[in-house]
Amino acid sequence: MIQWLAYHPTAANLMMVAIMGLGLLSLPEQQRETFPTIKNDKVEIRTLYPGATTDEVEDAICRRIENRLDSITLLDETRCEAREGIAITTAIMVEEGDMSRFLDDVKAEIDAITDFPDEVELPTIQELGRTDQVMSLAITGPSDPVVLKSYAEDLKQRLLAETDIATVTINGFAAEQIVIELSAATLRQYGLSAADIAALVQGRSLSTPTGQLKGVDEDAIIRVDDQRRTVSELQDLTVISGVHGAAIRLGDIATLRHEFANTEERIEFNGKRAAMLSITKTRDQDTLNSFDSIAAFIAQERQNQPPGLELTITQDVSSIVRDRLSMLVRNGIQGLAAVFLMLWLFFGTRYSFWVTLGLPVSFLGALAILPHLGVTINMISMVGLLIGIGLLMDDAIVISENIAARLHRGERALQAAVAGATQVLPSVLSSFTTTILIFGSLAFISGEIGQVLRVMPIVLLVVLSVSLLEAFLILPNHLGHSLAHMDKHQQPYIQRKVEQGFNALRDRWFGPLLDLAIDYRYLTVGLVVMSLLLSIALPVGGWLKFKGFPNIDGDIIEARLLLPQGTPLAQTEQLVKQITTAATRSGEHFQAAQPEGQSLIRNISVIYGQNPDAFESGPHVARIVVDLLSTSERGTTMDQFRDHWAAEVDHLTDVIALKFAEPTMGPGGKALDLRIIGPDLEQLKEASHQLQQWLNSYAGVINLSDDLRPGKREYRIRLKPDAGVLGLNASQLASQLRTAFQGIEIDQYPNGSSTIEIELQLNAADRESITDLEQFTVTGPKGVLIPLTVVADIEEVRGWARIHRINGQRAITIQGDVQHGVANAQELLALAQQQIIPQIKQQFPHIQIDIQGESNESAKTSRSMLGHILTGLFGVYILLAIQFRGYLLPVVVMAIMPAALIGTLVGHWVLGLDMTMPSIIGLASLFGVVVNNSILLVIFMREAHTQGESVIDAAKQAGRARFRPIVLTSMTTIGGLTPLLLETSLQAQVVIPLAASLAFGLTSATLTALFTVPALYTILHDFNLSQPHSQD
Hints:
The chain folds into 3 domains: about 1-30 and about 320-485 and about 495-550 and about 860-1025, Up-down Bundle (Multidrug efflux transporter AcrB transmembrane fold), CATH 1.20.1640; about 185-250 and about 710-800, 2-Layer Sandwich (Multidrug efflux transporter AcrB TolC docking domain, DN and DC subdomains); about 555-710 and about 805-850, Multidrug efflux transporter AcrB pore domain (Alpha-Beta Plaits, 2-Layer Sandwich).
């Protein structure tokens, strides 16, 4: 096949054009995103229980759902959050499960629950993570929130109709409702209850079919249509008929308003009331294409929008994707140029051109294949392509060097191309197979971090496979035809000088050092072992830290405010103003550090009623979201801005928690995340307090809090023993109290994409205090009004705002962050497991403390990676044992792998980087690369030994012979990574540790291979354990 394609005038070129054409055709269909998509594994069940306390929600909903879900085979974990009036249950699937089957099983089990209390609404079930955020759109202008929401509704419908986005959610408004408010005094005056009024309104405002007329020509429907849907229509509704024809209308005894349900649910954007449209895409849509279509729609809308209205794009995720991919493309071009320059210095223009041409062929071929494997264009896959720039050159350089050697011996170009490629085919295939075994094993690592990082070895597997085909089926044809006349010309001046310099380096420096290494081979091996131990001392001694995932700078930072439950909105607003003013001061402080003195802060949004860390809603929580200049534009890190902002905030009173946090950008979760499980919430709270106190004693621990907090004051009402004499039971009492103090929904009707409810309730003034409750009158079975305190006792207690359950057990979660460079989460957690956690367990023997978040995910991925690497290494050993027909030579070949660890650890320490999971997968990937040089070195030593040379001389000759190709292949790989390694932009921080592992690890492995492998080979001979190839 190699010979036929090399001699055929068109076949190889047609193959190349076909591969590149398929890649180019696939480009418009490529999906671009920041990180690889993590497999969906969560299903959420939301169950409303209006008016219920947290304890009631836990007993009535959580326990029932947990019992049903336990029988699902694919279930990994169940979480249930009991809050006031709602239970949020999350069912987590095992990683290898099928989501469609899992979702069906969850729905079937929930549908089978028949004993929920009557007041519990139908649970809603949805798969989480089916869409990804693209951006938010702020609408400001009209001061009337009803007008603002109406325009937002209209814009939402047109966005969905005219673009390809998945969902648009309008934020900043509570549900619209028509409120009918009654005073307790008026009800007593007419001898009525709230329930009586509700029944009268429902009976006199309805629309219902009542039958049909069956005619000869046609049928007709009869309908009573007297439904009241506006304030004026309801006000005119007769509720009491007078004795002499006078009527009392609803407007006479009640106050009616059309309003939003909760005034605290609102958003301010740059100081103005706003509607915020959250726009998402499906996971199989391209982020940048989605943004571009939305941006085009907004640009058109701005030309036609009503006067005074303003549309502003904020929280733009696409800019992060665009900036990071642009950075990687730029580094890729620089790396490609560096590789071409290196090849040109050694081989000249013709060789360099045809060898380098293999890169776009391999890349485009891979791009045609990768979408079918579920791989998108993202930071990790792009890094895989960047690494491939250097790795792809290895096979081509080996083939080119062999072809060049044959040309120098006088063979014709085509003959040299065919024979040169054929000669190295077995060794290159062996090297390729070892690489595949390592990369292939890494393609199956598990965990959230593993799902992200395993994309890189998958990309490299595909790229290297296409590259192998190009190197043997296309490259010989190009070199054979292009170099046909090169034997008639002298070597170009620059290449001749470079070769002379390289030969001088080999003969004057490397050769003598190699001779010393072989002559003092035990010292050589001992020095390498000592270097390895010293490098391992860096992390063991604490000089080199480890963390799960590198810090990823985004463009958005939030301040999350939590006040005690019951805090009025006015107090929250006052504190929010202080926080936003501090943010503005911080932005001004850093303005001089920005390019051209730009303002660091683009927008500030205030979202009342939300706090994702608190898992609560209401007037006591708020988020302040700050949009900064993109990472490609600004000169300030997120940590710098966060620390200054936190310092600028004056001491705030009555604050439970104020966290400055960046929305999660990568996998893994929080740096500090501990889960305490046990039956007694008081014990859990005390254990949490002790653990937080211990963690807070260390510098660099920030934003630490747990999720168990006191709830609202609760009044528990219990009927007195003689209440039954009056014909009153607990169910009747609960119904009347719920109608009066919670309200009753009389009707609802659609309004655009939302629903307007008609709600009846007591006046706010009649349900403000315990006095109003004590003065409440209960309607007996015969219509007699009875004071509540006559028939019931009232007890004041305070429960919990939220109860979190894990797999049927109560739990508290402690979460926090650490300041980079000040504290290390892994060290803190390891120390906690040695010191404070055993003490707490001894004090509370029935509780369990687990490490979650980034540390847990790192450990999960590390365990998976270790198992798969060992499997891959075992496969490499078997392959080498078959190839070398022995058990010890594979050990010599593989002994080079630990040497890669030396450079990786030292490189991270020199650059001031933490070791991370990307660092480790870079190191693991390196194992599949460095072993190739050792294979060819051992082959050359055995061949020289077979030809009659002594083992010592064979080792020295082989080392000199392999010096140039080993150094050159390493130089091209390192050269392809160098631009990324030198990148100073904030976007590159996640991939620099990976590049450092490869570049520094390959450097140390190359140097070690050149000296240590020959030394080990001769050591085998010292013990009569090496034999020439002919005797095998």
